[in-house]
Amino acid sequence: MEQSLTDLLYGFSVALEPGNLMWSVFGVLIGNLIGVLPGMGALTTISILLPLTYFIAPVPAILMLAGIFYGSQYGGAIGAILLNLPSHPPHAVTCLDGYPMTKAGRGGAALGVTMMASFFAASVGIIVMIFLSPLLVDVAFKFGPTEICSIMLLGLLAGATMSRGSPLKGIAMTLFGLICGAVGTDVITGTQRLTFGLTELGDGMELTALCMGLFGVADFLVTINRVAAKPVRVKVRMADMRPTRAELKQAFWPMIRGTAIGTLFGAMPGTGPTITTFIAYAFERKLSKTPARFGTGAIEGVASPEASAHAKTQVDFIPTMSLGIPGDAVMALLLGGLILKGIQPGPQLITEHRDIFWGLIASFWIGNVLLVVLNVPLIGVWVRMLQVPFKFLYPTALLFICIGVYSTRNSLFDVAEVAAFGALGAVFLKLEFSLAPIILGFVLGPMLEENFRRAMLLSRGDAMVFFERPISAGFMTACGLLLAVQLVSYWRKTILAAPAPQPEELMSE
Amino acid sequence: MQSLKPSCKERIGAALLIAMGLGIMNAGYSYELGTLRHMGPGLVPFALGAMLSLVGLLIGATTGGGDRARRLPGHEVGHGAGQGEAQTDADWRGWLCILGGVVSFVLLGHFGGLVPASFAAVFLSALGDREATLRESAGLAAATTAAGVAIFHYGLHLQLPLFRWG
C-alpha cells in the first residue's frame, strides 16, 4: 500500500519530466485530433503513429502511444454523438442514444456527460491498476513457460470468441495472425519459414505494415464511395456542454455501474471493449424503469457505456503490462510497440522498468486531466474537423501510411506489404471476418511458440503437463469453459431458436 | 457485396481458409516437423495450418440451416468461390486507385524518390473517389506532398532522397 504510493509518486516524477510530458501531451492531442476524424479509430491512429516511436526513447514513446490511445477513444465519442459515426466499434453503442440527444439539441450535454463519465471511470481504473498490479506480479513470478502458454491460449481464445461477429471466424482470424507471426527465420534452427523465397521476409513481417494494411488501407477500400458526406449542422459551444442538474442526477448511477462493469471486464484478458460497452448498455436498459426511453436520447445510455469503455481501457493495461497478455488488438499494438523498443513485457517489467510502468500510470492521470482541459475549449475545432470530407482525408492518410511504414525499416518492401495486407484485409472484411484478432495472434504468436517449445522441452514432450500443473490447469479449464459456452450458445441458436435474430449478428452490424 | 447471399459469403470464406490452411500445412511439412520433445521448425506452422483448415471446414459446415439442403450436393465450394468474386459489387475504381497508389509509392520511391512517389500515391488514390476531378486531385497531391516533404524530409530526416534516378 505505502509502497504503491511511493511508486506512484515516483511515476509522477517520471511522467512530469518535460521530455516525457511533451510527448504525452502530443500523443493525447494527436490522438484526439485523429480520433475525431471520421473513419479513424484508435487502431488506425496508433498504426499510423507507431513509426514515430522509432525516433524517441522508450519511456516517452510508450507514454505517447498510450496518450494516442485514450485520446482517440475520446475523440471517437465526439463523432459518435454528433454525427452518428462510430469510428471505433465500442462507440457504436454511444451512437444509439448520443445521436438522438444531438438531434434534440442536447449534444453538448451528452459530450459533457461523456467527458465526466470517462474521467471518473479512468480514475477508478487507474486506482485499481495501482493496487492490483503488484499483486498480479507476485502471482506472475510463479509462472513458467507452461503457465505462460496456457494463459496466452486463454487470452487468444477469449479474444477470438468474445469479440464481435462469429466466434469461429474470430478463431480463424486469430490462427491467421499466429501464422503471420510464424513467418520469418526460425529462432532455434534458422530455417526460413513461409517466406515464399523472399529474403525481405526473413526478419518476419513488419507489425506496422500489417496494422496499416489491415486497419488503414483495408478500411479505405471498404469505405470508399460508400459513405455519403454528412453535412454537420450542429453547433456546440462551451456553454452547451454543461449538463443540467437533472441530467447529472440521471447519469450518476449509470456512470458508477458502467465503471464497475468496465473494471470487471478489464481484468479478464481477451474481452474486447465492444462487448463491455454492449453489456453496460444492456444492463442499464434492464435496470431502467423506463426502458422505452433508450434509443431516443436517454443520457444513461451514453454515460454507462462510455464509463465502462474507459474503465476497461485502463484496467486492460494490467494484464498487458504485467503478464504480457494484451486484452484486445489496441493493447496488442501497444505491446508490439514495447517489443519494438526492446522491452519484453511480463512480470519483470514492473521491477526492471519501474520508470515505464509507474510513469505510464501517472501519465494516464495527467493525460485524462489534459483531455478534459483540451476538450472543453477545443470542442468547436473538433466539430469543424468532423466536416473534413473523406475524399481529402484518405489520400492524405494513405501518404502518411506509406511514408510511416517506409521509415520504420527504410524498406519499400514493407510498403508493398501494406498493399498486400490491405487487399487481403478488405477481402476478409467483405466476407465478414473481423480483423482485430489477427493483431492479437501476430503479436502473441512468436511468444507462444517460444514458450510452447520451452515447455515441451522441460516436460520431455509430454503435452499433459498443461493439465498437470495447477495454475496452468486452471487456465485450461477456463479455455474449456469458454468453448463449452460457445457450443451451448450455438446449439441453442440453431436448434432451439432458428428463426430469431442472433445477438452476435446484431452486434456485428 | 450486398448482392451476395450470406451463405455464399460463408462458403467463400471457408474455401479461402481451407486453401490457406492446406498450403501452410504443406509448407510446414517441408520444414521438418520433429517430435514434441524436440520440435522442428515446421511443427508449429503445420499445426496452425491444420487448425485453420479445420476451422474453415467448421465454418463451411455450419452455414445457415435454411439453405443446407441446397448446399449438400457439395463440390460447390471451390466453384462458388470463382462465381462469388465475379458477383461482388466491390468498388473496383476505388480499389484499383487506392492499391495503385500504394504500389506507385513503392515503384516511384525506388526509381524516382520521395517527391514523385508521394505525389503519385496521393494523386492516384484521390482519383478513387467517384466525385474526384483531375484538377482537385492534383491540387491535393501537391499540397500533401509539400507537407510530407516538410515534415518527413526536413523535420524527421527520412532516409528516402527527394529525387533519385534509377
Summarize the structure.
Chain B: This is Tripartite tricarboxylate transporter TctB family protein. The complex is a heterodimer of chains A (509) and B (166). With 509 residues, chain A is mostly helical.
Essential attributes:
heterodimer, A: 509 residues, mainly alpha, 21 helices, B: 166 residues, 0% strand, membrane (chain B), Tripartite tricarboxylate transporter TctB family protein (chain B), transmembrane (chain B)
Please give a structural write-up.
The complex is a heterodimer of chains A (509) and B (166). Chain A contains 21 helices and 2 strands. Chain A is an all-alpha fold and 509 residues long. Chain A has one domain. In chain A, strands 1-2 form a two-stranded antiparallel sheet. Chain A is globular, with a radius of gyration of 22 Å. Chain A starts with a helix and ends with a helix. In chain B, 69% of the residues lie in helices and 0% in strands. Chain B has 2 domains: 82 residues; 64 residues, no CATH class. Chain B has 166 residues and is an all-alpha fold. Classes of the chains: A mainly alpha (509), B mainly alpha (166). Chains A and B meet through helix 8, helix 9, helix 16, helix 17 and helix 18 of A and helix 1, helix 2, helix 5, helix 6 and helix 7 of B.
